[in-house]
Amino acid sequence: SRPNRHLEFGTWKGEGVIRVLEECDAHVWTINIWEGERDSDGRPVYFGGESDIFESPSGSLQTDSKGAIGYKYLEANLGNRVDQIYSDSRNWDDLTYPDGFFDSVFVDGAHDAESVKSDLYRALRLLRPGGLLLMHDFVPDPVIHANCPSTVGVACAVADELEKLKEMCE
Length: 170
Fold this sequence. Notes:
single chain; five-stranded parallel β-sheet; two-stranded antiparallel ribbon; 32% helix
């Protein structure tokens, strides 16, 4: 069945949100840090080229920060079906939502292993039994990791937690 309540870790431009809103009548909650994702040296992760720049009245912005977060769902006039949460998902007070509150969850926030683990376990608590969990950038192939570093942390997080995840499914 189609979800009524969908949670997304990592808003970025809001393209994932639009896909959900176009396919069903769900309300979407989506989480993104206000400052945008940064690498270990403090540089913006999503600011590598023209497609990563959002021109706002106040100037150029990294597409996953400040006024650019979710701009695509806002431009499509779909913001009335979205609760945009500005928080580091590791510090987000998810206890305001009961266990199993969401019908579907998409994990595509920060890509370091510790953040992915945090998002994954929050997602599993918040996902209803029989709900749909989707994870972006999970590619357990070291050849691809060489060309797409964002997959490394996700694959490592899943590998580290695989036994515990298997136990949860039994």
